[in-house]
Amino acid sequence: MLADGREIRSSVVSSQIALHAVHGGVVPELAARAHLEGLATVVDAALAPVPGGWDAIDAIAVTRGPGLAGCLIVGTMYATGAAIARGLPIVGVSHLAGHVYSAWLADPDLEPPYLALLVSGGHTECVVLREHGVAERLAATRDDAAGEAFDKVARLLGLEYPGGPAIQRVAPSGDPRRFPLPRTRLKGAFSFSGLKTAVRYLVRDLGPAALDENGVPADPQVVADLAASFQVAAVDQLVAGLEVAADRTGATTVAVVGGVAANRALRDAVGARFRGLRVVIPPFDLCTDNAAMIAAAGWQRLRVHGPDAPGFDVDPSLAECA
Ligand code: KG4
Ligand code: ZN
Fold first, then answer.
1. Is domain 2-99+287-305 given the CATH code 3.30.420.40 in the classification?
2. Does the pLDDT value for residue 25 go beyond 90?
């Protein structure tokens, strides 16, 4: 729950990591069911510390897309029901805008224009928020998203889901120079499938004797060295792409947002590379998916565009980023 669109009064996240970890990735049907089962409890928990509870709420923001259709439908149906019952305005917000606005939420002095590197499990893009409600996408991935690459490489290495935190955990004990990996540089785009495939071939080329019965490297040092080599290459690609976008736009402020922005190596690399610019990277719990960022983006959307008519459709592939 946000006050005045920018002050976090409460933030409750119900993680589905344990639910999906046993399957090695997100199972859409389970995700939607878990949303249905958990939503009312999460909303009650978010309202519990707010004096007045529902009576203190002026508007409801909900994610309209992009995301898994079943999850988006559960969320919008719940929010629409609550809005109608309480007579409140509702806004359907882009998940991507939520990430872009997580920087605005995290730094009370930040105002557009700013350039955001948005790196999540489903997206890798450079976006300029020109003014509230107006954004331009400068670059996007041609294939895998950065977070997806972390998740897939972790799987190749026998590390748990989600892969980003797992790779970050083992990489510090590895040698990032042991396995040279390619850096894909494309004009106005990102690509992570080549890097992921290169790791796959490295694992294969270790030979059967070096792999355990699941086909993953048996030696923990090899796992750590591969994780470190992958992480440094992935971070290099992201920072290089952000640098091109910053040069092109003459940005003076850059933000890094989305689940992968929780990555320590990426945070450090961006801080070092953009020393002359203002760098905003939200705290970890605003990087990974959360409702506070959706409320912040929703606050601005409501101000700029007004409310949506209840009954609006979800859009699993919504591309809008403001
Ligand atoms: O934004 P997010 O919570 O959900 C999506 O919108 O996709 O991002 C989730 C992604 C996952 O791929 C996860 O592996 C990655 O963010 N991630 C990380 C880290 N924490 C989460 N990647 C690298 N390092 C991390 N510390
Ligand atoms: Zn996200």
1. yes
2. no
